[in-house]
Design brief:
The chain is mainly alpha-helical. It has 5 helices and 3 strands. It has 2 domains: 43 residues, no CATH class; 107 residues, no CATH class. Helix 1 packs across helix 2, helix 3 packs antiparallel against helix 5 and helix 4 packs across helix 5.
Length: 161
């Protein structure tokens, strides 16, 4: 059942990307979707029907705007540090704690942090995430967690619970 659902998801993405309904395109989509599922089907996460709850899509939509805002702020912060002749940086690796339990949620968090300029996820050990930060403000785990992770985490908890 899992593989059939994955096949249809991949095929739907194919149709959305090509937006062509000719017989050749539809058949090519079937073949490519089938090959993708056979070769990569084991790496897809599966949560059954739970993955399609409308509530999750609502929180994902909200998270998108939170992420965009965080990225804009971080871009201006990094630009300020680059353009300032005194180069006010204090790089280092900080340890933050995550409350997320699912692997997909933690991966989403780590990727979001890496995509935000000035920070990069380095490692995940247990419920701690190690992040390279362009300007370490505090060595305190709690304070760093609030500054880097907390804004993302409250939305990701609702998406990946």
């Amino acid at each position: 059942m899992k593989r059939i659902i994955h096949f249809f998801i991949i095929y739907a993405v194919w149709i959305l990307l090509t937006w062509s309904f000719t017989l050749q395109e539809l058949l090519a989509g079937v073949v490519i979707s089938l090959l993708a599922e056979l070769l990569l089907g084991d790496i897809f996460p599966y949560e059954g029907v739970k993955a399609f709850y409308p509530r999750r899509f609502f929180w994902l939509f909200c998270y998108f705007w939170v992420f965009i805002w965080a990225m804009i702020r971080a871009n201006f912060d990094v630009a300020y540090r680059v353009l300032n002749i005194y180069l006010p940086i204090k790089p280092g690796i900080v340890k933050v704690r995550t409350k997320l339990k699912s692997d997909m949620g933690r991966t989403f968090l780590a990727n979001s942090i890496t995509l935000t300029p000035g920070t990069m996820s380095v490692d995940l050990v247990g419920d701690h995430l190690y992040i390279h930060w362009i300007n370490v403000v505090s060595p305190d785990i709690q304070k760093d967690t609030e500054m880097i992770v907390a804004g993302f985490e409250k939305y990701l908890e609702r998406i990946f619970e």
